[in-house]
Specification:
The protein is low in regular secondary structure. The chain contains no helices and 2 strands. A hairpin with a 5-residue loop joins strand 1 and strand 2. The two termini are 17 Å apart.
């Protein structure tokens, strides 16, 4: 997996809670480990939140199948 430089929640326009339909739990960068975190945004990230870096997880997984 590619390595990313993490940015602040402010720079990512982080929303707590998310105002729209998309949520961190559905983002490909969200990691559900303790504490929950994101590959791209610094700090503890909650599954019901959102930021401008959101990218929906592929329903086919990493292999594309």
């Amino acid at each position: 997996m590619a390595e990313y430089v993490k940015i602040s929640k402010s720079a990512a326009q982080y929303e707590h809670p998310a105002k729209g339909a998309d949520h961190c739990a559905e983002c490909r960068f969200f990691e559900q480990v303790a504490p929950r975190h994101c590959l791209r945004v610094d700090g503890v990230i909650l599954p019901g939140d959102w930021c401008k870096l959101f990218e929906r997880k592929s329903r086919f997984g990493a292999s594309g199948k």
